[in-house]
Each structure stands twice: as C-alpha cells, then as structure tokens.
Automatic annotation (TrEMBL):
<dbReference type="Pfam" id="PF13473">
    <property type="entry name" value="Cupredoxin_1"/>
</dbReference>
<dbReference type="InterPro" id="IPR052721">
    <property type="entry name" value="ET_Amicyanin"/>
</dbReference>
<dbReference type="InterPro" id="IPR008972">
    <property type="entry name" value="Cupredoxin"/>
</dbReference>
<protein>
    <recommendedName>
        <fullName>EfeO-type cupredoxin-like domain-containing protein</fullName>
    </recommendedName>
</protein>
<feature type="domain" description="EfeO-type cupredoxin-like">
    <location>
        <begin position="30"/>
        <end position="120"/>
    </location>
</feature>
<dbReference type="InterPro" id="IPR028096">
    <property type="entry name" value="EfeO_Cupredoxin"/>
</dbReference>
Length: 122
C-alpha cells in the first residue's frame, strides 16, 4: 500500500520535472484540484501561487520560481514563521525547506492577498 503511494508520488514528481521551464503551462496546471499534488517547485505567476495547495516532503528543498516582474515572498503565515523565502526578485528563484510535518498557511509578505497552503508529509 505504501509502496504504491510512493510510486505514484515519484511518478508525479518525474512528470512534473519534465515540464521544463518554458512557463507555457499557465492554463494546464492552474486547476484547483481537490487533491494536493506532490511537488518540489512552486511557481508564482500573475500574483498567484501554483499550485495553491501543495504537498511536499519534510526536509525537502522547495524551489520557488517567481515568473512575475514584481518581487514576491513565500512566507509562513504565522508568528512563528516556520519558513520564509525572503524577497524573491522578479524573474528569479528562491527556496524554502520545511522540516516539520503539518499543514501550513502561506502568504506573500509584499502582497498579503496572495495565499497558498502547503502540507508537509513526514
Ligand atoms: Cu507578492
């Protein structure tokens, strides 16, 4: 059972990794699927996080790719600030790593209306 799940996650990651950096998948991956998909990259485009509901592994480095001209952050929306990418300039990338499993609310410190949620699995 766990092996099947793991295989599915790995498969999804491989497929996602093959998507390239052309940024042309604006419509295809913008869906609000009920199930969060496993990812190691979060895009920011048009003041939206993509995926807006993400699942990642504890301790895994998450790349944050800002495709906007404006700077953004990917920041834990809680006083403890379990993670914070800091300012990511336009057309640049940053990263965060979250060590503790759980579900985290995310926002952009520069544009507080930008929201996402990251679930970290152990
Ligand atoms: Cu922002």
């Amino acid at each position: 059972m766990n092996h099947l799940l793991l295989a599915a996650l790995v498969g999804a990651a491989v497929i996602a990794g093959c998507g390239g950096d052309d940024g042309s998948d604006k419509t295809s991956s913008r869906g609000t699927a009920a199930a969060a998909k496993a990812t190691d990259t979060i895009r920011i485009a048009d003041f939206l996080y993509d995926p807006a509901v993400a699942t990642v592994k504890a301790g895994q480095k998450i790349s944050v790719r800002n495709e906007d001209a404006a700077p953004h952050t990917l920041t834990h929306e809680a006083s403890e600030r379990a993670f914070d990418s800091g300012n990511i300039k336009g057309k640049a990338s940053g990263s965060v790593t979250i060590d503790k499993p759980g579900t985290y609310k995310v926002f952009c410190e520069l544009h507080a209306f930008m929201k996402a949620e990251i679930t970290v699995t152990g």
